[in-house]
Amino acid sequence: MRTDHTKLRVALAALAALALSLGIAACGGSSDSSSSDEGGNGGGAIVSNPDNGKVSLTIGSKNFPEQEILGEIYAQALKAAGYKVKSALNLGSETVALKAVKTNQISGYPEYASTALTSFFGLEPEEVPADANEAWEKANEEFEKEGLQAFEPTPFASANAVGTTKKTAEKYGLETISDLEGVSEKLSLYGSPECRQRIDCLAGLEKLYGLKFKSFTPVDISLRYNVLEKGQADLSILFTTDPQLAAESDKFVILEDDKEVFPAGNVIFVTKKSTAEKAGPDYEKTILQVQEGLDLKVMQELDARVELEKQTPKEAAAAYLKSAGYTK
Amino acid sequence: MIPVHPVFASFSGAIEFIFTPQPSNVTGGKLVGGFTQSMELLLTQLEVTLIAVVLALIVALPLGLYLGHRGIGEVLAIGLGNAGRAIPELAVIALVASLIGVGLLTVAPALAILGIPPILTNAYVGVREVDRSTVDAARGMGMTELEIIRRVELPLAIPTVMSGVRGATIAIVATATIAPLAGVTTLGDYIINENVYGQNGVLAGAILVALLAITLEGLLALLQWRLTSDGLKLQTA
What is the domain-level CATH number for residue B9? Predict the structure, then answer.
């Protein structure tokens, strides 16, 4: 019996390993959607520079769809510019991602300027400049002290937001977060696990708005609409770039952040100065070039492809680069 | 520099984090960690673990004993038992959370799934390994089938059954760290949110989970010793 036991286990393990390796192979074959050697002229197409072939880059991202899409866009664009590119998406939190940059495990990753300022450099949410360029310059100043560099910001900005169903908003007459005063004690709030303690999340709602909620329940970010739909949550922490807000505007609304607890952040690409120097001018040029088209509408549409239509971030990024004429 | 040095530094940092609240980058000045919060999280971890283990016992123990007693369903008891160990728990919790909802009432059953295979398999094997002549003797004395299970097979199978329960408990208590992703704030809160708690918090969470697991394992070993009949102890001693 003992041997049957082990045999079965070995067989199962082998099966699992096979399935895994197939899965990995399927993903790994990925980054090859190169469309490199197009001597593209004009139209903003990325030009492949053979000199870049000597440089290997690893592009990272944090672990939610918008970040992965951005990571893919940068990775595929740099590949089109002739670089050898690997990607390390899904890195977890910003502290993990930043450490990966500092230790050269990744070359760079997209970060929200607001997050960089509050999380890395200790600013209170209300101290984050509303102007995208000002926020970027402030963040870059701090990054430079650590031998890092942040490229110019994307056109779009993203922020956390308190969201609810249209029904709940109408029932309690909610338009702004301040409107929650007096009713928040009856409402449950759901958000990512880290939201509970963050000043730009639950802690800020409690401290800066003076709100108390019936309960706060931590959930995986991917469930943020699910808990509203199921009626488990009265309020849920959403992102302003969420495609659901545009696609189902009759169902979900976000409350205006009238005291600015959730600073909006444009994305800045964070890298090491030494990495940027080694990679040459095409590194920054390519990144700035491909993010030019990323306004709020485009970003929402890309998020929709992944979150609603279940495309992979890689497919969504490739479609963006192609339709915007950056690659063929 | 000696490479082990930073490890020790963060280990003492983690211990400090468990007992004294520490500053954090992202909380706007509010201190995090400390004894009160650590105990709160630990108790939640213990609570969800115990509920899940009890649920797993209710499902798997009677089934394993019955199948073992009748000598049927080996494929189910061992095959399913082994296959069950390959279930990715994170996927189960994610699935249950999106289908049914989040909170203790969904996380505990999802965790119980982890405990069922080892309890089922060990109960089955434990009963099967009981000497058949002993069972025949019991039957000859006029015991009912239920009495045979309860008074002969289960006592003799206790060491095997309990080792299944111990395995199930360790698996569940360790995995309960992912519960914060589905609405239950366990010690995993420290581990998942490095952003908030820093590396000291992550290590503190890991240390507390390990201590909890070791404690539970010790208590169950003690329970097993108490439950094992003296005759069996003599045999193994």
Answer: 1.10.3720.10
Contact by Cβ (8 Å): B171, B118: yes
- pTM, whole model, 2 decimals? 0.77
What CATH class has A45-157+265-323? alpha beta
Nearest by CB: A223 against B79, B83, B98:
B98
A230 contacts on B by Cβ (under 8 Å): 101
Q: What is the Cα–Cα distance from B60 to B168, expressed in whole angstroms? A: 11
Q: Name residue, tokens 């007693």.
A: B69
Minimum distance, in Å, between the CA of residue A11 and any CA atom of chain B: 10
A213 Cβ partners below 8 Å, 6+ apart? A184, A185, A187, A188, A189, A202, A205, A235
* One pLDDT digit (tens) per residue for chain A, 328 residues: 444 444 445 444 544 444 444 444 444 333 333 333 333 333 488 999 999 999 999 999 998 899 999 999 999 999 999 999 999 998 888 888 999 999 999 999 999 999 999 889 988 887 888 889 999 999 999 999 999 999 999 999 998 999 999 999 999 999 999 999 999 999 999 999 999 998 889 999 999 899 999 999 999 988 999 999 999 999 999 999 999 988 888 999 999 999 888 888 899 999 999 999 999 999 999 999 999 999 988 999 999 999 889 999 999 999 999 999 999 8
Domain A160-254 listed as CATH 3.40.190.120: yes
The ranges assigned to domains in chain A are 45-157+265-323, 160-254
